[in-house]
Amino acid sequence: MGKLGNFILESKRVLKVTKKPSQKEFMATLKVAALGMLVIGLIGFVINLTTHMF
Asked: What helix, strand, coil percent values describe the chain, rounded to 5?
């Protein structure tokens, strides 16, 4: 059993340990991810705006 076999065994172990998030946990994760994308988008927009001004 090589690296692929070890990877498959580890993947199975991780899937057994994990659990489905509750709706509250999912919504919190979704809000944080959306806020992060918004902040990164705004930073990119400001940088793009300032580079075209000069």
From this structure: 85, 0, 15
